[in-house]
Amino acid sequence: MSERTLPLVFINLGGEMLYILDQRLHALNTSDDNSEKVMNDIVGTMFGKDFMDELLKPQQLYSHRTMKTVLTRLAHASIMRLNPASMDRLYELMVMAFKYQVLLCPRPKDLLLITYNHIDTIREFVKDTPVVGNKVDETHRKIIEIYSSLPEGEFQLLRQTLLIFFQDMHIRVSLFLKNQLQNPNGRFALSTSGPVPYGMDVPGLIRTFDRKGREVRRSEFPTGGSYTSPIRKGCFELHGDRVIRLGMNMYTVNHPEETHTSKAHSVKVITDDTPNLLAKEELNLLARLMGSMKADDMPKTETGFQINLFTTDQEEEEEPLFGVINIQAMQDEQAATQLAQIAGQFAEGEEQPENLSSSKGDDLLAMMDDL
Amino acid sequence: MYHKEKSIQVKNSASALYNNLGVLRIAPRHLTYFTVVHANVVNMVSASWDGLNYSHRQLQSKEPNVATSTSLIMQAAFCPLPSRDLLVVTSQKGIQMYESDGSIMVYWHALDTPETPTAQAVFARGISAVRESYICVGVSSGAILVFDVPIKGSNITLSEVLKEHKESITDIAPECSGQPGMECIADLVSADDGGNLYVDCIILWKGTVVAGYGTGQIHLYEAVTGILHAEINAHARWIYSLDIAPFSGLLLSAAEDSLVRVWHLTMTPETNSVEVAHLHNECVTDTQICGAKFCDGDGYAFAVTGYDLSEIIRYTQS
């Protein structure tokens, strides 16, 4: 499918991650200094030239496992430390938010507007640190350069590739449920009313023509929905009104309550029947991405701080929801070992995972703890 | 006009791909086969007409070697030919052809994939049986591969490569007037990615091209001249599937806007004109539809698939 998904995946998922981190850091009364440092460090690494250049190379979209490993590493590019349960929840929130945005994206090209909404907010987060702000601008320019000229069909292919990536994920997010964007069964609500996407016509009209191209008849038909004309076009430049709201920060200070995720009752755990050996290509990508997160972007100070993003009662009563990872761990320990080894090589200032050689039988999640 | 029947449960959910539903009616055995694509797997269900027996099968996309990552399937479609029916599956790596029940793979054609990925994705999409013994498959480069299919056996050969298009093929359709032996002026119509209006579904019926667009519009053209007969503002989102019941002229359209619509096409040969009337709507709540097909040549029943849904929804005329 599409070979251009990675940059959009990272910017959008990374953006959602930053929105959540920002909200939680404020809710937990973290000092302004620490908050700013965390955001600057993560954004600086994510938009670092080497990392972005790796992402921009044409390549496949790999597994959730790889994405999560890299995003965890990105989160730990700051002085903040997340425990594995927090990281799991965080990933679920990020992915469900992006899935919602991709699903409801009015036209395939509007995926760029969603991405630019994320970039605009990220730019705000780091506005007091010009060095990092420049990196964001530079990346934004590259994205505009590469993606602006793609035809609509290419964007639809990109969107279809992303939808396959998100398939079967129905984790319930309290904020979505509250705003009725998501049903209790975990599925998103799709409306049959409202404005049609920019460039489309409101349904309901049949026009018939004669052989000379003159319209000879018009008739209307009932559409089963109530559609209105499109709103204005969004701006695809470096700055401007994006118009569509998908990709904007849902976790503003007006929603101080914590957002949590839960499994819908009828959701079956995703089982992957195909042997999912981490293909050589995927491991290569992982190694390149980890390597491109520069050493001097890593914090030198030892004074990190632990953060528990979500309340412990929640964690105790719910079983790990991201069933995919648990099941795969049983099936391909060799791949899990390789993954942990690569991740372990880049663990700056943290102890090297000692137990790798005797890792057979270890839970993959335990290995991720060593990151 | 139509009412909902009992759905058929499928092992996996449907992926968001165009024309993601294959239907083949096996009248002598009172069975209908259905195919739904999920990432790198084709789910096949064989359903008996009395609704009592269902059997399931899964087909995987073929990997050239173990070291590469999984190849995603773009489309699975049945190709009914006079002598035999085949199931064709297209993916990022190539084209697989099976006996219609999915039991044996009779042919594999690998696509030329470059060593390091280029920006242009490589895949095959757009499947059609043409005339007596050909199967045509579109490729992302814009080429259409024409395969010669013998009456039986696996000696299928690539006989020709048509290079009319410059952009990725989105869909191909044969002339399906439903009247065997009739002279066809045009055999095949194909659509591609290029241009401002993105065509993703196409049908050719009695010399009329019916095209479904990313703008939600359906256009009817005279095949030979390209003259526009009619333009319908049909859907509020991208159209994902079009199908025609050749004996009755019923047209089915389905889109990401959750709606399936049934239309009626009438030809007036004297005036060379085509009329289209809207007959019926079905809304599949909170679902982006990715496949909709009639289950028979008269349009008495149709089936629908949607992204993230693990069932095939069926409707029958009341």
TrEMBL record, chain A:
Segments crossing the lipid bilayer: none
Protein name: Organic solute carrier partner 1a
One GO term describing the cellular component: cytoplasm
InterPro entries: OSCP1
Pfam family of the protein (one): Oscp1
Automatic annotation (TrEMBL), chain B:
InterPro entries, per the entry: WD40/YVTN_repeat-like_dom_sf, WD40_repeat_dom_sf, WD40_rpt, WDR54_beta_prop
Entry-linked Pfam families: WDR54
Location of the WD repeat-containing protein 54 beta-propeller domain: 1-199, 201-316
Organism domain of life: Eukaryota
Keywords attached to this entry: WD repeat
Residue ranges crossing the lipid bilayer per the database entry: none
Residue stretches of each WD repeat: 232-273
Protein name per Swiss-Prot or TrEMBL: WD repeat domain 54
Gene of this entry: wdr54
